[in-house]
Amino acid sequence: MTQRTLVLLKPDTVERGLVGEVLRRFEAKGLRIVAMEHRTIDTATADQHYAEHVERDFYPALREFVTSGPLVSLVLEGDSAVEVVRALNGATDGRKAAPGTIRGDYSLSNRENLVHGSDSEESATREIAIWFPKL
Q: So which residues are the catalytic ones?
């Protein structure tokens, strides 16, 4: 089942020079880049994207991090793209992520965990509309 998903390569990915490596992993798996943009985001966009977390105690630090520098937003397409991206990303907490995953290989944090991937087809549709409204 071909589907699309949103991926964010967070500011730590950009700062550490890992954008090419992370993109290579997605492409090597057979996912196709439909749209991609290098940008910074403001707090309003962060709040819209992370709407379900805005009231949670961890959110202010997450907002500060995701707005702290440039990131890369992209839409990937492929067979079961949502599930495939989440498997490649690994567990949210990089300290617990399996070796061989993006977070397992490169992250030692729960917050600064390099990547975001939509958690469902419904989330992907909502998030893609925020980041790439012309798609």
A: 116
